[in-house]
Amino acid sequence: MASTIRVRATSNGDITEVQALIQHPMDTGLVKDSKGELIPAHYIQELKFECNGKDVFVANWGTAVSKDPYVKFSFKGAKKGDDLKISWIDNKGGSDTTTAKIS
Hints:
This protein has about 100 residues and is mainly β. It is built from no helices and seven strands. The strands form two sheets. A four-stranded antiparallel β-sheet has the order 4-3-6-7, with no helix packed on it. A three-stranded antiparallel β-sheet has the order 1-2-5, with no helix packed on it. The protein is elongated, with a radius of gyration of 15 Å.
């Protein structure tokens, strides 16, 4: 199965810019289906980016994040060729992890 995470990380001098797109329904638990029943909440609780074993971005999310979230941030301390590990865990126990080389 293909990863739900697409990521691009580019280094320019001392700054590394990261852009990630995650496929996830991010259901709030407040929307009803066609039968009028509530769709249970299903959302990412923790999103983490690690570079060289160090956390560089950690987010604890709730239901207020939109479907298929997009994340963009930058950090210092990485160089071209380093590995960036991205992982998420949702409220139903689902998870995904991928790695990307910083270019």
